[in-house]
Amino acid sequence: MTMKMKRSLLVLATLSLTLLAGCASMQKWLKSAFKKPQLTFKTARLSQASLSDATVDLVYQLNNPNPLGLSLASVNYAFFVEGKQVVAGTPPKGLNIAANGKSELVFPANVKFADIAPVVMTFLNKDSAAYKAQGSIGIKTPIGVISFPLEHEGTFEVPKIPQVQFDSPRITNVTVQGATVEFPLTVKNRNSFPLPVAGISGALKVAGANVGNLSTGNLGMLEAGNSRQLTLPLKINFLSAAAAANALRSGGNAQVKWDGQLVSGSQNVPLDISQLLNFRR
């Protein structure tokens, strides 16, 4: 080995030792300067809900006090409702965590009520349902991956069936053969979140006689706590509904019964509405 080669090797060895010492110093500095982020549970909310299923979002808040952004390295997440595991997802807004601030991490879980209870109507009669989240996330940082637990238990509001009620019907176009009756209907969303209603329909009886079918058509999304007023006209033939003819010709009170179904999501909910109504002329 020549003297020149020996000098080159000595220079390389010296540079390597210097770089190693620098990296060790840099790593030590990072460990002392880096502040561990804090993960806290914020809330549980229904982002979408119908009478057949709901998406439950568990929202966590990550406080990153460092001047550099971070990212999620791993997610291990499971979600249970009434003791039964349901499909859970990862944060839909990506895996980046802002520097010097707070970021929300949203973990969605789709809950199909038919998977929770053998009879969906039994589940819908509950005020709330118990949930449990478990798992962990790994946050990629300059000093390695830091793991945080996702353990949390609580309850969420079970969707309530809308309240459906008739107001006093109005009789129009009375003839010998029949009459047109306008049935005012109020549909109220009793939930603190919007609820889709694809429609309400069913057979109608007046004074015990079948007079036809009423249908609302698609009502779309009912806003939280709001009511929708509808007027449903129905032509009634006196010959086929003789028992109702007297009440409709003269006005006055008559018992109205609507055996219908309300559709929300993929769930059909039976409605049995019976009211004593005053028919107006």
TrEMBL record:
SMART domains: WHy. Belongs to the LEA type 2 family. It comes from the Bacteria. PROSITE patterns: PROKAR_LIPOPROTEIN (PS51257). InterPro entries: Lea14-like, LEA_2, WHy-dom. Residues 1-21 form the signal peptide. Keywords: Signal. This is LEA type 2 family protein. Gene3D superfamilies: 2.60.40.1820.
